[in-house]
Amino acid sequence: MSTDLPESAVPPPSTGADESSSAPTRRTFIATSTAVGGAVIAGGLVGGTFLSGSDEASAAQTPPSSRVTLTVNGTRRTVTVDNRTSLLDLLREDFGLTGSKKGCNAGACGACTVLVDGRRVNSCLTLAVRLEGADVTTIEGLDKGGRLHPLQQAFIDEDAFQCGYCTPGQIMSGVGCIQEGHTGSPDEIREWMSGNICRCGCYTKIVRAVEQTAGRK
Amino acid sequence: MHPFSYTRVSDTREALAAGSRGARYIAGGTTLVDLMRETVERPETLVDISGLPLREVTATERGGLRIGALVTMSQAAADRKVRTLYPVVSEALELSASAQLRNMATIGGNIMQRTRCTYFRDVTAACNKREPGSGCAAREGFNRMHAILGTSDSCVATHPSDVAVAFAALEATVHLLGPDGERTVPFADFLLRPGNTPDREQALRQGVLITAVEIPALPRPLRSGYLKVRDRQSYEFALTSAAVALHVRGGVIREAKVAAGGVGTVPWKLPAVEQHLIGERPSEALWAAAAAKAADGARSLQHNRFKPQLLNRTVERQLRIVGENA
């Protein structure tokens, strides 16, 4: 299901399929094809209208774009991106990795947190074009051979979410927090996890999940 | 976001060449990308300088510390030399932003960051800093977070950095590299008060590169620390803050370095407070009397009339915290 551009490909021309209708279709396609096999909206693919986000953008006015090679969850990928593309949009729109969430899109909520070269960062403020050679880990790449990461399991065990929208960012940030060793006390965890906002207010259980996972290491 | 072209450079000569052609440098990008998305910033070319060899924290021959411009905030905060010699710097860094942002943002970028004034960020609002001559919506607007010191009729926006307050207190210097070679600028002269030209924020010509911030040696033993007062306990900009460093010998304060944040259009050095402390013996009365001078010359706005008193109390408390153990 890779939507990577072949290295020599010229971005295909836009078919005029407008963003408003094609954007939900992309998500619908991903979700529906996973669930029931894609036959429902197969017609939407005829004529090659299934384009990734940055393809459409660059095809429309050919704004400056660049080729970048990076590794995402262990898979090396080469893509041509509009220079304006954030890592978050690349992950979600081009790679179909919609686990990383767009909350504020301004570095204020933490829902988009991923690891770049092992360090937690806000993918919404990271320009994809700058990631040549980088190693990116998202929530989709955290499990080992189908076994959940201990912090993922701890979030389930502790019931550390309600709506779940902030959860991938919380978990990626928690993984960073544990690696950094800032889990000495609940207060320290709260301070070092403060870049992740939870509107449901599950902080007590999130702190507990991080604390327990850190303690197990 | 407006389209822009992008290049990556691997040495300072390439960087300066691109800079002299009008390109904007990008390091951590946490401010720049955010403001580009809001179309407040509209660079036509970005030069990625993250590959330049400016990532070291080194002790200087003079006994101070030199922090490379591309050292991230988290690296600088975790650095053993920084933590041992200047706790005020590591504390200011760790009380800034979030762990994610500190992993991205650099020391050079931190002192270049732009104000968080909401009217500056809102391209539909009047703002002399963003659009010279358009007016200042903050003056009569919602100005609770705004500055009370160093303001002008043109602009009342605060400088948002915490570590810059520590740098101002410690009288750091900024190392610059331009087409004409290297140069150092005292921190106090690097960030500019708004005056009639709030769009000019640094004493920095186009294409000049920040290579490091140097903190001078100070007499030892030195006690220092940073206190930040804000609406949330974490991940919030300062309403007021205080950076304090004291050298006490023989029961007498021999050296005092004090600056305040959240209140000035630039990090606000407090020489009157420093002078009041030097030559005196630490006492509760001394902290209060010295801190009472912190808000000298302050001009409040409609919604931040609480700031002068909060500033005095912030400085007093931090003098006590640092001074009790000095």
Automatic annotation (TrEMBL), chain A:
Keywords: 2Fe-2S, Iron, Iron-sulfur, Metal-binding, Oxidoreductase. GO terms for molecular function: 2 iron, 2 sulfur cluster binding; metal ion binding; oxidoreductase activity, acting on the aldehyde or oxo group of donors. Residues 66-142 form the 2Fe-2S ferredoxin-type domain. The keyword Lipid biosynthesis does not apply. InterPro entries: 2Fe-2S-bd (IPR002888), 2Fe-2S-bd_dom_sf (IPR036884), 2Fe-2S_ferredoxin-like_sf (IPR036010), 2Fe-2S_ferredoxin-type (IPR001041), 2Fe2S_fd_BS (IPR006058), Aldehyde_Oxdr_Iron-Sulfur (IPR052914), Beta-grasp_dom_sf (IPR012675), TAT_signal (IPR006311). The keyword Oxidoreductase applies. Pathway: Alkaloid degradation; nicotine degradation. Residues 1-25 are annotated as: Disordered. This is (2Fe-2S)-binding protein. It comes from Streptomyces himalayensis subsp. himalayensis.
TrEMBL record, chain B:
It comes from the Bacteria. Pfam families: CO_deh_flav_C, FAD_binding_5. The keyword Hydrolase does not apply. InterPro entries: CO_DH_flav_C, CO_DH_flav_C_dom_sf, Diverse_Substr_Oxidored, FAD-bd_PCMH, FAD-bd_PCMH-like_sf, FAD-bd_PCMH_sub1, FAD-bd_PCMH_sub2, Mopterin_DH_FAD-bd. GO terms for molecular function: FAD binding; oxidoreductase activity. Coiled coil: none annotated. Residues 1-220 form the FAD-binding PCMH-type domain. Keywords: Oxidoreductase. PANTHER family: OXIDOREDUCTASE, XANTHINE DEHYDROGENASE SUBUNIT C-RELATED. This is Xanthine dehydrogenase family protein subunit M. It comes from Streptomyces himalayensis subsp. himalayensis.
